[in-house]
Amino acid sequence: MQTQGQIIDAEQQFADRALLTLIEQVRQGDRQAYRQLYTEHVGMVHGLCYRLTGGDRALAEDATQEVFIQLWRKIGNYRGDSKFSTWLHSVSSNVCVSYIRKQRGWWQRMFNIEDSAAMQETAEGSTGEVDIEAYVQRLPERARMVFVLHAIEGYRHEEIAEMMDMAVGSSKAQFHRAKQLMQEWMGYE
């Protein structure tokens, strides 16, 4: 008789083999397999893009589409050394960061900090409770991207620095800046 753990392991192995088969079909140009891969992963990719774009729905949707265009082109680069979701997460982060940089004036947005009164209006819901996500969305873009990648997505500063073409120290400084701004806006100075 199999234990619960053995059953779960067997189910995971089956799912992993099915995913590898699906990926191979996509590599061979199977559009139906690509559509299935898209359907299974679009939620995760869009969520990441939404956080990285600071809640800009239109930009997040465009970035999500760009991720899947690049996925179609780069699926051959997936070697299976890591889980597909991990690889896709990395591709999504890189593509989204690049897409954002191309779409808007990078330096213009970097220093665009909302005043505290406007910030307070946006961040407080109708019940007067603070919406942390609203604060994250209001961070200057570069600080927000580093904050999301490090604090929420779990990337190391070395990875963020490479992804965003900056020094490791700059990544750490942007993260520190984001934390300070959020603490100030929430009244935890």
Automatic annotation (TrEMBL):
Alphabetic keyword roster: Sigma factor, Transcription, Transcription regulation
Domain RNA polymerase sigma-70 region, first and last residues per copy: 37-104
Record bears the keyword Cytoplasm: no
GO MF term list: DNA binding; sigma factor activity
GO-annotated biological processes: DNA-templated transcription initiation
Family matches, as CDD domains: Sigma70_r4
Gene3D superfamilies: 1.10.1740.10, Winged helix-like DNA-binding domain superfamily/Winged helix DNA-binding domain
Domain RNA polymerase sigma factor 70 region 4 type per the UniProt entry, residue ranges: 131-181
Recorded superkingdom: Bacteria
Record InterPro entries: RNA_pol_sigma-70-like (IPR039425), RNA_pol_sigma-70_dom (IPR014284), RNA_pol_sigma70_r2 (IPR007627), RNA_pol_sigma70_r4_t2 (IPR013249), RNA_pol_sigma_r2 (IPR013325), RNA_pol_sigma_r3/r4-like (IPR013324), WH-like_DNA-bd_sf (IPR036388)
The family this protein is said to belong to: Belongs to the sigma-70 factor family. ECF subfamily.
NCBIfam families: sigma70-ECF
Name of the molecule in the record: RNA polymerase sigma factor
Organism: Bowmanella dokdonensis
